[in-house]
Structure formats: structure tokens, C-alpha cells
Specification:
It is a single chain. This protein has five helices and eight strands. With 257 residues, it is an alpha+beta fold. It is 22% helix and 14% strand. A hairpin with a 2-residue loop joins β5 (197-199) and β6 (202-204). α1 (16-35) packs antiparallel against α2 and α3 (124-137) runs antiparallel to α5. The radius of gyration is 18 Å and the shape is globular. It has two domains: 16-52; 73-253, no CATH class.
Length: 257
């Protein structure tokens, strides 16, 4: 899944030929995304560049020329049509209790983007504060779209390195089924690949194995005292990376569960 095409000799990232290919691919995918419903939702251009890089992880975000765009946040109401795959009858909260946030974030490409995330109405202020702090720190985020872009498939979203919030599902935990904090819209997973969930020999997503050495701090990682952990701690949220038995480095929640 992560293997890329074989290359003949070293790839020159800044050669005119490569720049032309990347520009053409980006333009093509932008046009395709505009034509197909939801086509732009899963970061097609980002994945295309990653594929050309043969699965290599991106470089950290760097300063761009000129003044950086100001952080922005916009709140929309949610209906059943907004969350067709992540919500169903019988979930602990309904669409009226949820909100769709559009917030600014810095990508690994060093460019400011607008992400979309669904959370509980009660935590909107917290979430805006968190992403404002991360934006000010230029903490890089790979992708931010609702899990409906992946039909509510948590493993697929994790494999895509998506940062997301609400998903009406059960907790990944032993014992009888119980709702995850995500089912209430009160938890967020950030940069799943850089911050995997570990349970014994199981690593979710599998690409997260490259980040099992938490002492080797790289862009996008959640580490004690780092920008990501500090941002969530500033609004009183808890980090799953503190769990010694099965650390969930990507996970932040209101309740600590």
C-alpha cells in the first residue's frame, strides 16, 4: 500500500520536468474534484504528490514569502445530509447538536489551508482556540476533512492521515460495546500516521510504524510539552498518548476517554 514506483536514479525535485509534472497533476485533480461530487474532499492533490514521492513523508511546513494569511474560523449547522455516513438513528447525539467548523491550518507543504471538521456544539469554542494556537505555531496537519469523506470508515481515514472529529462508532476497547467519545463529537484525532494508536503488536494505521520511536521527534507528532499537546491542554482536553498500556497518540478528548 505504501510502496511506490521504482525510479531510475535520484529524483531531482526542483528540476523543470518534475515541476511541470506536479503542476499538471495538480491542475488535473483540481478540475476532476470540481466536476465530481465530493471529489476534492479527500486531499487528492496531496495524495498525488505523495504517490510521486513513492510514499515518502512530506517535509515540515516552512514560512512562505510575504505576510501569512490570518487564521479564520467559520461555524455551520449540521443536518443528517451533512453526516450521511457517520451518523444514524440511535447515536448518542443527533445532527442538531453538532457543528461543522471550517478552520485554517498549515499543511506539510508550508501552505495555509482551510480544513473541515465536525464536533459537538458544546466544544466549538475549545476547538477554535486549539486550531488557532496550532495555526500560530505553524504546526503542520496533513489533511482535515470529515470522516464522511471515508464513509465513516475509521481505519481508512487513519490510513489517509486525516484529522477528524465526530464519528458515531464504538470505542476500540475491551469489554462490552460502549460509545466512543467521537460518537459525541467531543474527541479529535490529529495526524494519525505521525501519531498512531498502538495496542500490543497492532498499529493503526500501519504506516504509523514509522513513528513508533517517539524520541525521534518529527513534524506533526504529538509529544509531551509539544505544540499539539499544549494546545489541547490549554482548553482542558486530555491526550490519549498518556495511556501506557495502549497509547493513542492521535487522540484528544474532553473526557479523557
Amino acid at each position: 500500500m505504501n510502496a511506490g514506483p521504482r525510479r531510475r536514479g535520484p529524483l531531482r525535485w526542483f528540476s523543470p520536468a518534475v515541476i511541470a509534472v506536479l503542476f499538471a497533476v495538480g491542475c488535473h485533480l483540481s478540475e476532476a474534484g470540481a466536476a465530481a461530487p465530493g471529489g476534492g474532499e479527500v486531499g487528492a492533490a496531496t495524495r498525488a504528490v505523495a504517490a510521486l514521492a513513492a510514499g515518502a513523508r512530506p517535509r515540515p511546513a516552512t514560512a512562505i514569502a510575504g505576510a501569512a494569511p490570518a487564521f479564520s474560523a467559520h461555524v455551520d449547522r449540521v443536518t443528517a445530509q451533512t453526516v450521511p455516513y457517520t451518523w444514524r438513528t440511535g447515536c448518542p447525539v443527533g445532527p442538531p447538536a453538532l457543528r461543522l467548523l471550517r478552520v485554517g491550518y498549515w499543511g506539510f507543504d508550508g501552505v495555509a489551508h482551510t480544513g473541515r471538521i465536525v464536533v459537538n456544539e458544546s466544544v466549538v469554542s475549545d476547538v477554535v482556540d486549539v486550531f488557532r494556537a496550532l495555526y500560530d505555531e505553524r504546526f503542520p496537519i496533513w489533511e482535515m476533512v470529515p470522516e464522511d469523506a471515508y464513509h465513516g470508515n475509521d481505519n481508512a481515514a487513519a490510513a489517509a492521515d486525516d484529522t477528524s472529529g465526530f464519528n458515531c462508532r464504538y470505542a476500540v476497547a475491551p469489554g462490552p460495546p460502549r460509545w466512543s467519545v467521537h460518537a459525541y463529537g467531543e474527541a479529535i484525532d490529529v495526524n494519525d500516521v505521525q501519531n498512531p494508536y498502538i495496542d500490543g503488536t497492532t498499529v493503526i494505521p500501519p504506516a504509523g510504524r514509522a513513528y513508533l520511536d517517539r524520541e525521534d521527534i518529527r513534524p506533526g507528532m504529538a509529544v509531551p510539552g509539544g505544540e499539539l499537546v499544549r494546545a489541547f491542554a490549554s482548553v482542558g482536553w486530555f491526550w490519549g498518548g498518556r495511556w501506557s498500556a495502549s497509547p493513542d497518540y492521535q487522540h484528544f478528548s474532553v473526557t479523557g476517554g
